[in-house]
């Protein structure tokens, strides 16, 4: 009996030793092999909404980036390496985004994170970014938490929500003479950020929101907020939300006889919001953008000069039409590739960040230049404005004069109209 026990014990100890050996070999192998790339491939990870109510934003951001990445790969990649994107759906859900990111960093061992979409999702993974010292580049969010305090591993390309809402409030107050401004916001990190940005902008004019109302992310329950804002008599409403709730709020306001100026930052997605509102909506709807018109300028279009984004999108995703969301993804990919080019063949995460920081006045066409530095990790600052016309958001090229004539003339309508 004792011999049998001794024999089993020896077998068990040998098994443990062998397992430890295998684990050590795996660890040593991982330490020897660079994180996230081989001689022929470099891997990036993305968590974004590919299903659910924010899927338009995630899908278009990814396709916009991929049309350029596929083009680069077809030309041989960067320094002999093809770019691979592992994209995981988080359905705009913060816990799922956290789980996806853990998997991307630990299991997939990606070189860097890329093209995340959304504030409530992205801010939740910042502790992992810091812990893993892994770069994250090109997020479809203008959240202030991704900009302050400065973080070496966080690389923003687009302008912030504070810049979008601040510029919008400036136009509403100075150009349109509106002082009674209310705020509809999504009750999460995204909505709070937009609300704060609007409050700070109004404070510059010694103003404050005349009313504010919120709704729960993922729902269309804007009735209480709508009633509160309509009762305030606001002449403009800043909407910090996604496309469907914003569209529901606009329709509900109009049905009650309210006609303020409706403004929303770029995150709502112009094509998606226009689709949910329909072509016959009778409202003044303005949306800020952080990129110019994706097809090019009016002169370029008239001359038949197709811009690179539109050409590549048609080549790789022939059923898609150029839009602002996809264009932002494309620009993110341009920055990514330029960083890899500058980092050289001897790649490391730190060298990649140094390379991004060396980009200064890099021209992208479309009247866009991008600049970074060791103390500034936001590449673009410009804000553009579009207005809903005939079912499509078009750049406001003639300033805000025509808008003022439309909404502040003798036939001006306000949210204090009958039915409020």
What do these coordinates show?
By secondary structure, the chain is α/β, with parallel strands linked by helices. The protein contains 15 helices and 14 strands. It has helices spanning 2-32, 55-74, 94-107, 119-122, 126-132, 161-175, 189-203, 223-231, 243-255, 270-277, 298-302, 308-316, 324-343, 349-357, 401-407; strands at 41-48, 82-89, 112-114, 136-137, 154-155, 181-186, 212-215, 236-240, 261-264, 284-289, 362-365, 368-370, 384-389, 392-395. The strands form three sheets. It has a seven-stranded mixed beta sheet, with helices on both faces. It starts with a helix and ends in a 13-residue tail after the last helix.
> Beta-strand percentage?
15-25%
Provide the low-confidence segments as ranges.
15-32, 410-420
The count of β-strands is: 14
Query: Strand order, biggest sheet?
Result: 7-6-8-9-10-13-14
Taking the sheet with the most strands, its summary is:
7 strands, mixed
Helices and strands: which structural class? alpha/beta
Salient structural properties:
44% helix, 5-stranded parallel β-sheet, 420 residues, alpha/beta
Helix and strand topology:
Blueprint: H1 2-32, E1 41-48, H2 55-74, E2 82-89, H3 94-107, E3 112-114, H4 119-122, H5 126-132, E4 136-137, E5 154-155, H6 161-175, E6 181-186, H7 189-203, E7 212-215, H8 223-231, E8 236-240, H9 243-255, E9 261-264, H10 270-277, E10 284-289, H11 298-302, H12 308-316, H13 324-343, H14 349-357, E11 362-365, E12 368-370, E13 384-389, E14 392-395, H15 401-407
């Amino acid at each position: 009996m004792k011999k049998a026990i001794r024999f089993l014990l020896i077998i068990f100890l040998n098994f443990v030793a062998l397992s430890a050996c295998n684990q050590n070999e795996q660890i040593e192998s991982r330490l020897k092999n660079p994180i996230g790339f081989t001689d022929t491939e470099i891997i990036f990870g993305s968590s974004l909404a590919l299903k659910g109510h924010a899927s338009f934003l995630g899908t278009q951001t990814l396709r916009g980036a991929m049309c350029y990445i596929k083009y680069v790969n077809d030309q041989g990649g960067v320094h002999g390496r093809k770019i691979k994107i592992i994209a995981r759906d988080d359905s705009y859900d913060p816990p799922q985004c956290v789980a996806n990111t853990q998997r991307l960093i630990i299991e997939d061992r990606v070189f860097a994170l890329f093209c995340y979409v959304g504030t409530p999702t992205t801010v939740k993974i910042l502790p992992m970014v810091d812990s893993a010292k892994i770069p994250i580049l090109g997020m479809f969010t203008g959240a202030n938490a991704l900009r302050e305090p400065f973080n070496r591993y966080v690389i923003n390309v687009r302008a912030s929500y504070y810049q979008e809402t601040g510029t919008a409030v400036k136009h509403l107050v100075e150009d349109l003479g509106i002082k009674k401004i209310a705020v509809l916001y999504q009750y999460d990190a995204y909505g709070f950020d937009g609300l704060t940005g609007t409050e700070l902008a109004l404070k510059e004019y010694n103003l404050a929101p005349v009313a504010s109302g919120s709704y729960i992310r993922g729902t269309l329950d804007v009735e209480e907020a709508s009633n509160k804002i309509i009762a305030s008599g606001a002449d403009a409403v800043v909407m910090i939300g996604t496309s469907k709730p914003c569209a529901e709020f606009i329709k509900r306001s109009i049905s009650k006889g309210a006609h303020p100026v409706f403004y929303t930052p770029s995150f709502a997605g112009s094509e998606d919001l226009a689709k949910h509102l329909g072509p016959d909506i009778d409202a003044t709807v303005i949306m800020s953008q952080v990129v110019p018109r994706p097809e090019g300028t009016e002169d370029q279009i008239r001359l038949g000069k197709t811009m690179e984004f539109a050409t590549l999108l048609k080549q790789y995703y022939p059923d898609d039409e150029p839009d602002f969301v996809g264009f932002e993804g494309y620009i993110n990919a341009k920055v990514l590739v330029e960083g890899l080019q500058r980092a050289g063949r001897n790649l490391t995460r730190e060298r990649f960040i140094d390379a991004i920081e060396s980009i200064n006045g890099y021209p992208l066409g479309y009247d866009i230049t991008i600049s970074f530095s060791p103390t500034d990790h936001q590449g673009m600052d410009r804000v553009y404005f579009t207005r809903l016309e005939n079912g499509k958001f078009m750049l406001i090229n003639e300033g805000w004069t025509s808008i003022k004539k439309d909404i502040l003339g003798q036939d001006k309508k306000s949210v204090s109209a009958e039915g409020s």
